[in-house]
Amino acid sequence: MTTNHTLGPWRAGKPNKDGKIAILSSGADWLVLGWTQGTDAEANARLVAAAPALLEALSGLVDAHDAGIPLVTDHRWSQARATINNAKGKE
User: Fold this and answer.
1) How far is CA 74 from CA 4, 26, 38, 45, 61, in A?
2) How does the average pLDDT of the chain come out, rounded?
3) Which residues fall within 8 angstroms of residue 84, CB to CB, at 6 or more apart?
4) Which residue, among 58, 26, 91, has the nearest Cα to 66 in the 3D structure?
5) Which H or E run contains 33?
6) pTM of the prediction?
7) Is the pLDDT of residue 59 over 80?
8) Higher pLDDT, 3 or 76
9) Beta-ladder partners of 22
10) Do residues 9 and 50 lie in contact, with contact meaning Cβ atoms separated by under 8 Å?
């Protein structure tokens, strides 16, 4: 898949002393993509950090559909569910 964004994986950092949480991209070094803060900072950071994985999971479902693969039994559903749960902070 060709992308026009910083490649993943991305992750949410730990809150700093001001309560801000960095969204980071891995590579040779961790790159700060942005910051979130406030009441929902941790949930927002998780959601943003999950963006590359969510895009990959959704793209996989669309590709399978377009190829005529029956999605009812396709492994991409479990990948999508796991990615959504990760974005929501569920195990």
Assistant:
1) 28, 29, 39, 29, 9
2) 85
3) 54, 57
4) 58
5) strand 31-36
6) 0.75
7) yes
8) 76
9) 35
10) no
* Residue 12 contacts residue 34 (beta carbons within 8 Å): no
Residue at 68: amino acid letter: G
Could you tell me the pLDDT band of residue 90, with boundaries at 50, 70 and 90? confident
Considering only CA atoms, which of 67, 71, 10, 7 is closest in space to residue 44?
Answer: 10
How far apart CA 61 and CA 49 sit, in angstroms, is 20
DSSP string, 1-32: ---SS--S-EEE----TTS-EEEEE-SSS-EE
**d(Cα 51, Cα 61) in Å, to the nearest integer?**
15
pLDDT tens for 65-83 read: 888 887 766 677 888 888 8
